[in-house]
Specification:
Layout: H1 10-20, H2 26-32, H3 37-45, H4 59-72, H5 76-88, H6 93-96, H7 99-112, H8 117-125, H9 128-133, H10 147-157, H11 171-180, E1 184-186, E2 192-194, E3 212-213, E4 225-226, H12 238-246, H13 257-270, H14 277-287, H15 289-292, H16 295-303, H17 306-309, H18 328-338, H19 358-365, H20 387-401, H21 413-416, H22 419-422, E5 428-429, H23 430-440, H24 449-458, E6 465-466, H25 471-487
Antiparallel strand pairs: 1-2, 3-4, 5-6
Length: about 500
C-alpha cells in the first residue's frame, strides 16, 4: 500500500509514462524513478492547455493534422485526455459534416481536458458539433427532440444506472430536460444562440406543466427539482440550470452520481477495466471532486493511487497483473515516438513502398479519429482486438521497420541501439540485444520468459553472438527483431 509520498520504482515510472503518454522512453523513466507519486503526477499535469486546432477541408485532413500534433506534442498527457473526452463526448464528422466545427470541438476538448467538469459540460451544451450530432438544432417547442437530453444523462454525466446497479433517471426526466434545450441553434461562426420563438415557454405550452426533473431518482424527494420555476427563469439560462441540478444528483447510496460516474470512467481509462466502488470513492475523497468538480485533482488522485500502480508489471511479471489493451492511436503513436520515426508528406504516411497514411492503418485497426462508431464512442479493451485488427497492427509494425527514406523517415535500429557499447568486447550476445531492444520499447518487464526465449531464438539462440557492425545483420535481423517485439502480445498492452 502506498500514497502520494511513495517513491516510484522503475517499473512504476514506466507504467505511469506509458499510461499517461505515448510510450515510455528510457531517459524519462530514469527521470521519474524515485519521484513521489504525487510529485510525478504534478509534473505531468503542469501544462497550459494548448490552443491547437486541427485544420483542413476534408475529414482526412483534420485526422492527419491531429495525428501530426500528437506525434510531436510536448505534453502527451494532454492528448491522452483529449482522446478520452473525444470518446466520452463522441461526435462524428459523418453526421456533423463540417470539418471546421469538428476542429473547434477538438480545440474545446483541449481547453477543458483537465479543467472544471461542470463548466466543461455547460460548454458542450453549446458546442456546434454536439448540437448538430445530437439534434439540438432540430429540437423545437412544437416537436421536442429528446436525443441530447437522453445522452446528456446516459453517457455524459450520470449513466443509465449507478455503480450499485440502480436506475438514475426516468423517461419523464428526458422529456423535461429536452424542453430546456428547445430552440437552440448556432450561427455561421459556430456560436450558439437561442431562437426564442422556438423555445418551450410554459405560457405557450401550459398543458405540459411545470419544468421539473428527478421526482423519482436523484435524492431530491417526490417534488423533484424545478429548473424554471417562473417566467423570469425561462429562456437561455435553463440549460445551465439543468446542469447545476444534474450535478446535485445523488445515487442509491447517497453519493454524488456525477462524481462516481466520471471518476470510475477515468479510472477505467488510466488504470484498468474493473475499478471497484471503493477505488472510485477513494480518488473522489482525495480530490474533493464531488464538490469542486476540478479534473486536475481527480486525475492526480488516480495517478497517485494504489489501484493505478497495481497495473505496473513488477518483475517477475504475473498474468494476474491487470492490463489494458492499447487504443490503436496509442499503439501507432507510441511506436513512432519510441522509434524516433517521422512520417512523410501532408498525409502523414509511412515512408514505405505503399506510402500508406497513418490514418489508414488506424482505420484498419478499428479507430478513425473524428468518426467514432456511435454516440457511445469506441468499444475499449477486447473491443479493439479481432483477427482483422491484429493483422492491421502487425502490418503497421512490418511497414515501420521497412521504412526507408531520408532523415528521420527511415527506420534505423543502429540509431537506437548503443552499438559501440554493445560491441565493446566484440560480437554481442543475442540475449543482450533482445533485452536492449525490449528496453527501448519499454516491455522488458512485461515479457514472459517464454516470449523472451522466442526472441533470443530468432537471433540464433542463447549462445549466439551477432556483429552489429554488419549491414546485413542490421538490415535483416535487427529489423525483424523490432517487428517481432511490436507484434508481441505484451506490446499490445499497457
Amino acid at each position: 500500500m502506498g500514497d502520494e509520498t511513495t517513491p516510484l520504482s522503475a517499473a512504476e515510472a514506466r507504467q505511469l509514462l506509458r499510461r499517461t503518454g505515448f510510450g515510455s522512453a528510457a531517459d524519462q523513466v530514469v527521470d521519474f524513478t524515485g519521484l513521489p507519486r504525487g510529485t510525478a503526477a504534478d509534473t505531468l499535469l503542469n501544462f497550459r492547455p494548448s490552443g491547437f486546432k486541427p485544420h483542413g477541408r476534408y475529414s482526412e485532413n483534420i485526422q492527419d493534422s491531429w495525428l501530426k500534433f500528437i506525434l510531436k506534442c510536448r505534453h502527451p498527457i494532454q492528448e491522452k485526455l483529449v482522446l478520452f473526452w473525444h470518446d466520452h463526448f463522441a461526435t462524428s464528422i459523418l453526421k456533423v459534416g463540417d470539418t471546421d466545427i469538428m476542429a473547434e470541438q477538438n480545440q474545446l476538448l483541449r481547453q477543458f481536458c483537465r479543467g472544471n467538469f461542470r463548466d466543461f459540460v455547460k460548454a458542450i451544451n453549446k458546442n456546434a458539433a454536439m448540437m448538430e450530432f445530437l439534434d439540438t438544432v432540430r429540437n423545437s417547442a412544437e416537436e421536442p427532440n429528446e436525443n441530447y437530453a437522453r445522452e446528456l444523462q446516459e453517457l455524459f454525466t450520470l449513466g443509465v444506472k449507478d455503480l450499485n446497479g440502480q436506475p438514475n433517471y426516468a423517461q419523464e426526466d428526458i422529456v423535461q430536460i429536452a424542453r430546456a434545450f428547445t430552440g437552440w441553434d448556432y450561427n455561421g461562426s459556430g456560436d450558439a444562440y437561442l431562437r426564442d420563438w422556438q423555445h418551450d415557454y410554459m405560457a405557450d405550452w401550459p398543458l405540459r406543466g411545470p419544468k421539473v426533473i428527478y421526482k423519482t431518482y436523484g435524492g431530491f424527494g417526490p417534488g423533484g427539482s424545478t429548473f424554471a420555476a417562473s417566467a423570469a427563469e425561462e429562456g437561455e439560462g435553463e440549460i445551465d440550470t439543468v446542469i447545476d441540478i444534474i450535478f446535485q444528483h445523488t445515487d442509491s447510496g447517497g453519493k454524488s452520481t456525477v462524481a462516481r460516474y466520471i471518476a470510475n470512467k477515468l479510472l477505467t481509462y488510466f488504470a484498468h477495466s474493473a475499478p471497484t466502488i471503493a477505488d472510485t470513492d477513494a480518488v473522489i475523497s482525495a480530490s474533493n471532486f464531488d464538490t469542486q468538480w476540478e479534473l486536475t485533482p481527480l486525475i492526480r488522485a488516480i495517478l497517485a493511487s494504489d489501484v493505478f500502480y497495481a497495473t505496473a508489471a513488477t518483475p517477475p511479471y504475473s498474468a494476474a497483473t491487470r492490463k489494458s489493451v492499447k487504443w490503436p492511436v496509442d499503439y501507432a503513436v507510441s511506436t513512432l515516438r519510441l522509434l524516433k520515426l517521422r512520417l512523410s508528406g501532408r498525409d502523414q504516411h509511412i515512408n514505405h513502398s505503399s506510402y500508406t497514411p497513418l490514418r489508414s492503418y488506424l482505420a484498419d485497426m478499428g479507430q478513425v479519429l473524428f468518426e467514432p462508431p456511435s454516440v457511445f464512442g469506441w468499444d475499449w479493451e477486447t473491443g479493439w482486438i479481432s483477427t482483422a485488427t491484429l493483422l492491421a497492427r502487425y502490418q503497421l509494425a512490418t511497414d515501420i521497420v521497412r521504412a526507408r527514406g531520408g532523415g528521420g523517415t527511415s527506420f534505423r535500429p543502429e540509431k537506437l541501439l548503443p552499438i559501440k557499447t554493445l560491441m565493446a568486447s566484440g560480437p554481442t550476445n543475442a540475449g543482450l540485444i533482445v533485452d536492449t531492444a525490449t528496453d527501448i520499447l519499454g516491455v522488458t518487464d512485461q515479457l514472459t520468459a517464454a516470449e523472451r526465449t522466442l526472441l533470443v531464438t530468432y537471433l540464433g539462440g542463447p549462445s549466439a553472438t551477432l556483429d552489429l557492425n554488419d549491414y546485413d545483420v542490421r538490415n535483416t535481423k535487427l529489423h525483424g527483431l523490432f517487428a517481432l517485439i511490436l507484434q508481441s502480445p505484451a506490446y499490445q498492452l499497457h
